[in-house]
Amino acid sequence: MKCNLLFEAFNAFNTIHNTGVQQAAYSVSAGGILKPVVTNGVSHVGDGSASQGFPDGTNARRMQVGLRFVF
Prior knowledge:
Layout: E1 2-10, E2 20-21, E3 26-29, E4 33-36, E5 48-50, E6 62-70
Antiparallel strand pairs: 1-6, 2-5, 3-4
């Protein structure tokens, strides 16, 4: 008889994996005038806009423990 203890962890350090980024740097207004896209004076070009991960659309930490008994 043997007993095995198993442990698995996914995203243990809670790292965000972006699946989409903000790409709009400028917007065009009437007359063809370009204006930078800013929020509270800050440009967010290149910032993550989506972070959906496999398998259920989240980047949450996942850990599981298992016990296998072989006889």
